[in-house]
Amino acid sequence: MISAYIIGFTTAFTLILAIGAQNAFVLRQGLLRQHVFWLCLFCASSDALLITAGVVGLGAIVARLPALPVVMTYSGAAFLLVYGAMRFWAAWQGNYALTLAGKSASLGVTLATAVAFTWFNPHVYLDTLGLIGAISTEFPEKFAKWAFGFGAVTSSFVFFFSLGYGARMLAPIMQSRRAWQVLDVIIGVVMWALSLKLIS
């Protein structure tokens, strides 16, 4: 069971580690030090639900809805294009007075944005329901399978809270308008690249 837990932890951590839209958003909020706990809790809990569903075997149900991946793909691509444009526009305007003062959108708006990044992202379903769900089938023994799933869930919580709260270590270099402009341009590029990857 310990080996199954470790495999689950490392598998999920490897999948989440790749720079993506959700991670970039958590990083930005972590730098702002605004709504970090609730954002990390939401992202990790969402992953936990999807990982559990993948381990239980609900990925087969998703596979029976052929229209769903198409809808999610184009919805996610459109959202990433819009959010990327917002970050480019923010960088172009360069008005970071509120940002430098540590102000961000309200908790409701922040979580609503996290919902879009999480639940409109087809890659989330591929990683959790698909890949993690498929790997869990290598553990036919029930307790080993659940140990694998628990390891994957634990990994998600460790990753998001480490990213959210670890971002503040970068705070000393994020004290200028130029630094935030560079970050927003990078985030915009990541968003548009992911969007183009989805629709291609």
Task: Describe the protein.
The protein is mainly α and 200 residues long. It has one domain (2-199). Helices cover 80% and strands 0% of the residues. The protein has ten helices and no strands. It has helices spanning 2-17, 21-32, 36-56, 59-63, 67-93, 97-100, 107-119, 122-136, 142-166, 177-199. Helix 2 crosses helix 9 and helix 2 (21-32) packs antiparallel against helix 10 (177-199).
Morphology call = globular
Give the fraction of residues assigned to helices.
Answer: over 70%
- The helix count comes to 10
Structural class, judged by helices and strands? Answer: mainly alpha
Low-confidence stretches: none
What is Rg? Answer: 18 Å
How much β-strand is present in the residues? under 5%
Mean pLDDT: 81
Quick one: how many beta strands? 0
Main beta-sheet annotation:
none
N-to-C series of helices and strands? HHHHHHHHHH
- How many angstroms does the end-to-end distance come to? 40 Å
* Tally of individual domains: 1
Structural features:
single chain; 200 residues; mainly alpha
Short account of what is shown:
By secondary structure, this protein is mostly helical. It has helices spanning about 1-15, 20-30, 35-55, 60-65, 65-95, 95-100, 105-120, 120-135, 140-165, 175-200. The chain is globular.
